[in-house]
Amino acid sequence: MNNSSSEPLFTYSSIEERTFFVDLILPIPVPRLFTYRVQREMNGLIKIGARVIVPFGKSRVMTAVVARLHNQPPQSYQARYVLELLDEYPLVTGYQLQLFTWMSEYYMCCVGEVLNVALPSGLKITSQSKVQFNPDFDYPELLTEQETVLLDELRKHPALSYEEVGRLVGEVNVPTLIKSLVGKRAVIVFDEVKEKYVPKMVRKIRLSQQYENPDLLLSLLRKLEKLPKQQEAVMRYLSHVPLQRNPALNQTGLDKALLNQDDEISSSSLATLIKNGVFETFELIQPRFSQTYSPQGEIKLTPAQQAASDKTMAFFAEKDIVLFHGITGSGKTEVYIDLIQKVLAGGSQVLYLLPEIALTTQIVVRLQKVFGDKMGIYHSKFSDNERVEVWKGIVSGQYQFVVGVRSAVFLPFDNLGLIIVDEEHETSYKQHDPAPRYHARDVAMMMAYWQQAKVLLGSATPSIESYYQAKQGRYGLVELFQRYGDANLPFISLIDVKKERHQKTMKNEFSSVLYQALSDNLERGEQSILFQNRRGYSPYIQCEDCEWIGQCPNCAVSLTYHQRAAELRCHYCGHKEMVPKLCPICGSTKVKTVGYGTEKLEDQLQILFPDARIQRMDLDTTRAKNAYQQIIQEFETGNVDILVGTQMITKGLDFDNVSLVGIFDADRIIHFPEFRATERAFQMMTQVSGRAGRRADRQGRVLIQTANPTQPVLNKIIDNDYHALYTDEIVERQNFNYPPFSRLIKLTVRHTDQRVSKRAADKLRADLAEKLGDERTLGPEEPLVERVRNQFLYDILIKLEREKINFKAVKAFIQECITNILTDKGLRQVSIVIDVDCL
Predict the structure, then answer these.
(1) In what residue span(s) does the Helicase ATP-binding domain sit (predicted)?
(2) Does 552 belong to an annotated binding site?
(3) CATH number of this structure's domain 491-535+598-731
C-alpha cells in the first residue's frame, strides 16, 4: 500500500463528475472489507487511513478505517453512505494498513480483529442514548406527575442523556419512566454518536491586551488602590507573569487555579475584574504528559559497553537484526540509549519494546533524564485519552521515540530507524486473547522490514529460537559478559526443602537457611526479593476428612483462596465465591488451605519478621493505574525491606540495595508440562537472580528452594551457563522436531457439550491428516485445563517443517478444513481458536 495516504487521490474537477466508494476495515470478526458510498460533500476530503463513521446492520454505527478509495459500486448489495468523516488528516498510515493485512493473513484471523485491537478505544466512536421532547405530543392528561415534571424539563433542553434524566427525577427507575413516555409518544429516544477522545482543557486567565502597555497598567494599579482585594489579584498575577520584562508573556496567561492557590484572592474580586474587562479567561488544550525534563545529553559508556555498541553498529551495516546477549547487570540499557541517540540524530524514529508495565515504570524514568519530553510512553495502564495523545503525537511528529509494551507495535510510525525488543525471550510479548494472537517480537521484525529499519533483540537469557538464528548467521550476535561497574554475579545456592522438612527445620514455607539469610539482611539494612510464581494465598482448599476440593463451576480447575478478600477465585473465568465454613460434602469443619502463593508468603513474612516492611507485587496488587510505579518507588527509595512477587519482579528491574533473592517452588517451574519448560525455568530463575548484588562493593546471594537439587538445569543456573543450556536444548528440539526446526499451529476446539467438542475435534484432525499426514497432525487431546467458561476444549497441534513447505498454502488448507467443520449442521455451535506460533 502507498504510504503517502495524506495526499488527495483525485483533483476537484474529476471528483465533481463521479461518485466514489470506499472499502472500509470495520472492527468486527468478518473476513472481508465493506464498500460504502462517499457523500458528495466529502469528495476530495476523504483519504486512505482516515477514520469514518458508518451504519452497520439495523441499528449499529461503527468507526471504520478507509483502506481503498475507488469508483466501483459493490455488485452483491446496495452500498450505504458514509455518515461522517472523523479525520482531516489520516491517523492510520499506509504502513499500518499493510501490517494489519499481513497480521490477518499470518495469524489466520480477520483484518477487522486486528484493527479492533490496534486502535485505542479513544479513537473509536461511542453511541449514547439521549431523550428529547416530541413536539407533536399534545395529550398531557395521559401523563403521571413524574412524567409531567420530566417533560417540563425536556422542553427547556434540546436533549438529555439518561444520566441527566436520572439527576432530574431522583430515585426513579429511569428506563421504565422513559419507556412509558415513548409508549405515549411524548418523547423521542435517539443515539448520539461521538468520539471517545476528549482533550484535556486547562482554564487560564490573563490581563486584557490593553494592559500590556506599561502606562495603562500603572494607571490601572492606581485606580485599584481603593479596592485592595482587586489590586492584590492583579499584583499576584504580575508576580507570576512579569509583564515589565516581557509583555508578550501575557498571551500565555496563568492557570486560574494557580492565581488563587492559597485562597487569598476572593472569587468575587476576581469575578468583578473579569466583568470589568481587566482580566479575560480562556481555555487551552493541555497535553496529559506535561512534566518537564531536562535532558542530560550524552551518556558515558564503559569500554565493554562501547565495544558492544560499536559491534552492533558494524553488524547493522550488513544485517537487519542483531541479538544482544548481555548478562544481567551488564548495562544493556546504556548501550540501547547510545544507539537510540544515534538513530534520532539521523532523523529517524525509534520504538523501544518492553515486556512488562512494571519494567516500563523504572526504565522510563532513566530514559526521560536523557530524552526529556520528546519521548512518548504507551501501555495499557494509561487511560484511553492518554493513549490517543501518544498516537496523535507520533502522527504530528511530536514523538520520535516511544517506549511501550507489546501493543505499541500498532502505533502509526512511518519513518522507523530502529526497534529495540528488550527481554526478547519473554512470553509477555505473545498475545493469547483475543485475536490476533500475535507475538510482538515477530511483528516488530515485519514492521522493520517494510520501513527498512533495524531490530535489536536484547536479553540475558535469549530464546532458543533467536540464539539459533544468530548462530546460523542470520542475525548478528553481540555478547557482553561483564557486569557494569565491575559488580560480580550473585552466589547461588540450592536448599533441599525435602531434607529440611524431614528434619523439621522449616518455618512454614521458609527453609532455615533462607530464614536466617533474611534475618541477616534485615540487620544489615539491605533489601531482599522473594519470587513465587503463583499469586493468591493458596492454590486450593481441601477437606481433611472427605478430601473435597473447591472447584470452579465453570472451569476444570480448583478455586484459588485469596485471604485478603476472604474469597475463592477462579483465575480463568473470574468466578468468585465465599469460603465455606463447613465442608459442603460431609459437613466437616476441617477445611484447610493447601499450597501457597505470594499472598501467603507475605502473610508468613509479617509473622516471622513483624518489624520488617513488606510489599507484594503481583496481579492482585497492581490493578490500579499507578500501582506499579508506587510499589517500585517505595522499594527503590528503601521504604520496603522485602518484596515478594510473581514473575513481574524478574524482568530487568534494577535496585542497588538488593543483596538477597529467594526462589520458591523451583520444581513446579521446571516440571511444567510443555516443551519449553527447561528453557523457561532457566530464564525465570536466572533473571530474578540477576536482581541481586548489582553493586561492586558486595556480592549478591541467591537461595533456590527445591525438593530435588540434582536436576541438571539447576547446575546451569548456578554456573550462569546459557551456552550449556542452549547446547542441550537445541539437540532435544531437533530430535523431536520443535521450534526452531518447525512451526507450530495450535487449533483449540470448544463447545459446551463435551461429546460435540470431541466429535468436531476428531473430524477436524482426520480432515487435516488426509493431506498433512499423521506426523504433522497431533491430537486431539485435552489440554491441562480441559474446561474453561463451561466449554470443553480439545487441542490439535500441527507441526510444519520450516523448509520446503508452502506455509501460506497449508494455512489456506487449514482454514478450509475449519470452514467445513463450522458449516456442518451438527457442529455449527462449535468454535475453533487458531494460534499460530503458539507458545
Answers:
(1) 313-480
(2) yes
(3) 3.40.50.300
